[in-house]
Amino acid sequence: MKKVKTRAVFSLLIALALVFGLGVYVFRFARDGADWASFTANRAVYQNGQLARGTITDRNGVVLARADGDARGYAADADTRMSCLHAVGDFAGNIGAGAIQLFSDELVGYNPVSGVYDPGGEGAVVVLSLDAKLCKAANAALAGRNGAVAVCNYETGEILCMVSSPAYDPESVPSVLPEGAYLNRVTGAAYTPGSVFKIVTLAAAIERIPDLKSRSFWCEGETVVDGQIVHCTASHGAQTVEQAFSNSCNCAFAELSLELGGDTLAEYAGRLGMTEQLALCGSVTAAGNFEKGDAGSTALAWSGIGQSTDLVCPFAMLRLVSAIAGDGLVQEPTLLRDGKTTETRILDKETAELLADDLRYNVVYGYGEWNFPGLALCGKTGTAEVGDGAPHAWFTGFLQDQEHPYAFVVVIEHGGSGIGAAAPVANAVLQEAVKS
Length: 436
Known about the structure:
The protein has 436 residues and is α+β, with helices and mostly antiparallel strands. Helices cover 36% and strands 20% of the residues. It has a five-stranded antiparallel sheet with strand order 10-9-21-20-19, sandwiched between helices. A four-stranded mixed sheet has the order 5-4-3-8. Strands 1-2 form a two-stranded antiparallel ribbon. Strand 20 (392-399) and strand 21 form a beta hairpin. Residues 29-49 have low confidence and may be disordered.
């Protein structure tokens, strides 16, 4: 009797172990099945380590990449191939965060019940949110300069344009590539932001300084902080905070930075995504940097101006201005047309509305609406001193246009001034965008 009981307990334990193992397998199959199907060792969908099936198109049906067995190719037009290179990626896997890699399980046609659709067939079609014509316009506007351009629909989160330069033609790869040609500068780089970071400082000031709107800020071309001179671009005299933002006054924003303090500025930089790795369709972006200067220090003053050791990823800035346009709510960006997105509140509605007003004020009273004909533009320029050549040129903002709810960011490495270099690129791209 004792032996029977022992055997019964032993058999029960084996059965429980089998059930547990089956449960673990089912769980991992549900979680990781798509990765198993699209693993590069799967010869049903990969040949010589390269995807052998699937098609990627832009939002209008333009083929951007296609694999069918040994035959692999990209867009028919060379300019489109170069313009969309970093967003689409390449079959060789040199550009790791491109759509070919990000959506490989969709491209192979993975199904959790049947496995891979039609083994040996053509795979599935993945439709990106990109507009190839808009990407071409952005690449043309960059005119060979190193930098990044991105445009998204802030109501849906769909990225319409993602261009990084330098690029190359994936169907005619040169023997010597430009430095950084594999890098997607929209998502994978972080730059000194210059005055576009003043959007972050202003957001903190709006919420933390009650009498901000009634204050007057004095600028005589420079101010002394902790025994060192903080220079401004001009002598602005007495200004409201709106005027100081439009003038991009370093003296006023040094004063605000010192009053807010390093802890508050670091909090807002993190909350608004400036220092975080952000998600995009399963990939993560480059993190930015903000170091808290000591109270009353020159480093603290410069950090709130967007200099010092500040770094910002262009994608993070695109996400921030999208949130401002969306009353503080950001539709998390996606590279898929009609892709599922989540909504994140990063600003109070009232703060976002005030920031939007100030960004519009910049264009109307600072940069000149005639530079952006027909566009209800809200924006902020940045001229980021980097110490090893001409400044990086930034321009970021959005359109107040129900038919064309577009946010944008432009960065040109060593491009010079934001208004002189980055703003014309933004205008060229947005003029093309509103045609559609």
